[in-house]
Amino acid sequence: MPSRSSGKNVVLLIVDEVSFIGRAFFHRMHCRLQQAKRAYFAERGLDPEKHHFGDISMILVGDFGQLDPIEDVSFCDDETTYATCPKPLWKLWGHAQLGRQLLQSFKEAIMLTRIHRSKDDLWWTESCLRLRDFVMTYDGDYEVWRQHDLDRGHLTAEQKKYFETEAVWLCTRCEDVGSENGKKLAHKAQDEKKLVHRIHARHSTHKAAKRQPSSAFDGLRQVINLVRGCKVMVTRNIAYKYGLANGTRGKLVGVVYPTGAPVGSFPEALVVEVPEYCGPAFYPSEPKWVPILPKVSIKESTRQTREQFPVVAGYALTANKAQGLTLKEGVVINLTSGKRFKAASKHGLPFVAFTRSESFAMTAFKNLPPWDDFEKGQHSDMLRMRKRFTEMLDRKHTETMRKYSQFQTAGDENEAYEMWRESREREPKRRKVEPQHYRMPCPACDAQGW
């Protein structure tokens, strides 16, 4: 959904994964950009109240069928009131209301309906889309998913070993992520006789800082445990331009300690091999090796500080953390639930977990929840509100296409797409070469044509 700028020299800001952004945070984005552009407004004699987001053009990109914002009000939410919202949101309610008004200023929308992550596995793509709207079926979807359960499915011993050792585990609870990462690190340390590097964060003189959770310090952990050669994940944007962003994954090459430092000292750097890194080479013979330096975070309310490396073990992630990632090596989905919390029925959560891999053959499950849990998602309040919100976007899409293109109806768009697809099929096909370790054949699925 684009918002237009009035200036001649247009500055464009693209906001991705917009489903994760709440209305209150959206308004605070506006306030911060207005503050940053004070000089701009003053020099041009513009009234800031008549311009949004510092007079910067905004494009919001994302799928509202994915995860909802944490401790905020979703763009799709048109039912929550101050009286019915959770107490932690009371202090944000004013921002949330202003954020809703800002969203209404976006007059144009373009809806994209083609899935490209799993385009080579049509059945898996369609099954995930049915899960997105909780219209999946027991025989056509759930029974097939259950065939890839590590304990009850038809996976071979070789496939189970691959998923256990190479695939990324996606969990719903932080304790399950910690347990899986700890188990994998312990096995690696024992099997390969390697040292476990236990890195304690450095704090200011405030003793209370050591007891604060990572959320109080921008995600910096109090303690991180690593083993040379283990999978790691970056938890901050370090050099986004060069591929070092929040969520980037790699392998720990080594830990650099100060010269002559005793065991247990705070390291100077972590050297990580990052396949996605595309910046200047720090090590000429190993262009993908990158030194990661510690970061300092300040808790504004108390001025307490924590210094720690923005890196964690990367064998397992939460589904929230995995949103936006494509995990080519495959995933194991662990939708463990509690007595009150049913992960399989939560709006957006199973859909995000299921769509991180590129095919059904690269997807496995650990204790797939019962069918009843998935069925409960059909009665989700957020699903109902999201459908209404999507209908509004569809109307805006039609108006936008009529205004800026020759397509006057949805039929015109479909006809143009079919013509484009047929022309692509007539072109000579290039042979696609994939790394061998990314292939996970599934004989039972292949025999059925999936």
Task: Write structural notes for this entry.
31% of the residues lie in helices and 16% in strands. The protein is an alpha/beta fold and 450 residues long. The protein folds into 2 domains: 2-104, no CATH class; 128-375, no CATH class. The strands form 5 sheets. It has a 5-stranded antiparallel β-sheet with strand order 11-10-9-8-14. Strand 12 and strand 13 (304-308) form a beta hairpin. It is globular and about 70 Å long. The two termini are 35 Å apart. The model is unreliable at 431-439 (pLDDT under 50).
Main attributes of the structure:
four-stranded parallel β-sheet, single chain, 450 residues, alpha/beta, 2 domains, 16% strand
Fold blueprint:
Blueprint: E1 2-3, E2 12-15, H1 23-36, H2 38-44, E3 57-60, H3 93-104, H4 122-132, H5 138-146, H6 157-165, E4 168-171, H7 174-191, E5 196-200, E6 202-203, E7 223-227, E8 231-234, E9 249-256, E10 269-273, E11 289-292, E12 295-299, E13 304-308, E14 311-313, E15 316-318, H8 319-322, E16 331-334, H9 349-354, E17 363-365, H10 371-375, H11 381-404, H12 410-426, H13 443-447
Parallel strand pairs: 2-3, 4-15, 4-16, 16-17
Antiparallel strand pairs: 1-3, 5-7, 6-13, 8-9, 8-14, 9-10, 10-11, 12-13
Helix pairs in contact: 1-3
